[in-house]
Amino acid sequence: MYESVLQLYIMSMYQLQQFHHHQQPMMKMDSMRKRERNKSVDKERLQVMDLSGMSLDFLPKPSLDLATICKLDLSNNNLQEIPESLTARLLNVIVLDVRSNQLKSLPNSIGCLSKLKVLNVSANFIQSLPKTIENCRALEEVNANFNKLSMLPDTIGFELINLKKLSVNSNKLMYLPSSTSHLTALKVLDARLNCLRALPEDLENLINLETLNVSQNFQYLETLPYSIGLLLSLVELDVSYNNIKILPESIGCLKKLQKLSVEGNPLTCPPMEVVDQGLHVVMEYMQHKINSSDENKSKKKGWMVKIVKCGTFNIKHVRHGKRPEHAGYNMLKHQKINGLASPGLMGMLSPLRIFSPRRSFD
């Protein structure tokens, strides 16, 4: 009798253990499904708030939780300010559009928008961007066209490491901050219709830049930095309607360049008869200038000496094979850029890239 009871007890304990063994993964699956459902609910809760074109002079009290807004469109109104308290609560906003208002400044609390990717503040009266914008490290696109900007935050390039497009055309900018050259993700830089006196000297870090437009700075912009020739991803360069007399010879290094706009400048090098024959002839002309600049080497201690000393270009013309000749310029011969001395590798090994302030923050 005692033995049979003991046997029943052991069997029941074994069955209970087996039941728990099978139930445990099922409970885990249930908890995972609940978490997934909660995530999907959270995504569904994020909403778009469109208050554009309503002639608003001030913002009404929102009827929903500001933390649930992923896109806020306040464009085409008469807003003169955006409350600090409102911006600080837009914790999940990804797109903020306040273009075409009467704004003279942006709230400092914009630095709280850690998820913000697109900011459009164009067509306002903004004189400067708040320094706190550097905290918006998820930013990929900034459109500040048609404002009254006279400067950008000095260290903007050290912080906005994901920025791909920066449009600041039609403002009053005299200079771009030197930190602009550290925007390594940047693909488009549009700074036309300003009062730019110069561009940052060290552009070689802009390894992804495809479009550079600094046209229509009129009498103010007289020179381009030699490092412009190390923008090896550059496809489109527009420097038209400035006061540039001489293009840097390094432009001949831009292998991917497909469009070069230089009209409206008092160019002497290259001469207009070369420019009129198209991009290919201009590129050959600039490459030939590098190859034949022996007498100028002693004067050029910067990029020119680096390129020539490393053997990127051969001083002697290539004599193998024949090249098609062009009317007006038929003596152009150059050697292809390749090997360890290419400007791409030189840009990667640049002291400014290795010791950039952004690295020190890492």
List keywords for this structure.
362 residues, alpha/beta, ten-stranded parallel beta sheet, 9% strand
Short description:
With 362 residues, this protein is α/β, with parallel strands linked by helices. The protein has 9 helices and 10 strands.
Structure, explained:
- The chain is of the alpha/beta class.
- The protein contains 9 helices and 10 strands.
- The protein has helices at 2-45, 84-88, 156-159, 272-275, 279-291, 303-309, 343-348, 351-354, 357-361; strands at 47-50, 69-73, 95-97, 118-120, 141-143, 165-167, 188-190, 211-213, 236-238, 259-261.
- A 10-stranded parallel beta sheet has the order 1-2-3-4-5-6-7-8-9-10, with no helix packed on it.
- The longest helix is centred in the N-terminal third of the chain and has 44 residues, at 2-45.
Secondary structure layout:
Layout: H1 2-45, E1 47-50, E2 69-73, H2 84-88, E3 95-97, E4 118-120, E5 141-143, H3 156-159, E6 165-167, E7 188-190, E8 211-213, E9 236-238, E10 259-261, H4 272-275, H5 279-291, H6 303-309, H7 343-348, H8 351-354, H9 357-361
Parallel strand pairs: 1-2, 2-3, 3-4, 4-5, 5-6, 6-7, 7-8, 8-9, 9-10
Biggest sheet strand line-up: 1-2-3-4-5-6-7-8-9-10
Count of helical regions: 9
| Class per helix and strand makeup | alpha/beta
Structural Rg: 30 Å
DSSP strand tally = 10
Overall mean pLDDT stands at 80
The ordered H/E elements are: HEEHEEEHEEEEEHHHHHH
Largest sheet: 10 strands, parallel
Separation of the first and last Cα atoms: 76 Å
Shape: elongated
Extract low-pLDDT stretches. Answer: 37-41, 308-348, 351-362
Portion in beta strands: 5-15%
Helix content bin: 25-40%
